[in-house]
Design a protein that fits this description.
- It is a single chain.
- The protein has 2 domains: about 5-60, Arc Repressor Mutant, subunit A (Orthogonal Bundle); about 65-193, Tetracycline Repressor, domain 2.
- Helices cover about 70% and strands about 0% of the residues.
- The protein has helices spanning about 1-10, 15-35, 40-50, 50-60, 60-85, 90-105, 110-115, 125-145, 155-170, 180-190.
- This is TetR/AcrR family transcriptional regulator.
Length: about 190
Amino acid sequence: MADTAKESQAPRQRADARRNKEALLDAAAVTFARAGVDVPVREIAAEAGVGVGTIYRHFPTRADLIVAVYRHQVEACAEAGPTLLASSPTPHAALAGWIDLFVDFLVTKHGLAEALRSDNAAFETLHAYFLDRLVPVCAQLLDAAADAGEIRPGMDAYELMRGIGNLCIGANTDPRYDARHLVELVIAGLRRV
């Protein structure tokens, strides 16, 4: 009941403010992927089609913006799992589709690793948040594929995600390195023979 009272007391954001915030998160994600998390704020504002002041109204510090973008993308990846499971022809296809989204998430994090290792307190809980939201989704997809007899049972979601993460580390530094192809080999290797 106390939570409901707090929610009713919190001011509701206007529709245009919500749209601006979503546009900012999407634009920041695009510019972070292109130029890293230290990209000038004016570039993010230009990508979003808003003024620089709008960014600061929603995200007073760069750390606030980085955290919000990261959480927004984690949520999108988490929500995609059940959607793919419901709409894909097989659980293995859903797993492969989700892993493809997960790879996209990982390879577009230029500069985020350095930011996460910084002294900024805003970044301290992001890794735990990432694991808390995404490991259960991956586990659900693995379990569904195992229950369907498509993959070997007993795959550990954390280990799979960690392995995929390690394969994605060099994705942006060597043009000959194709992390996506290596991840496809891992996913194919999960298949039951």
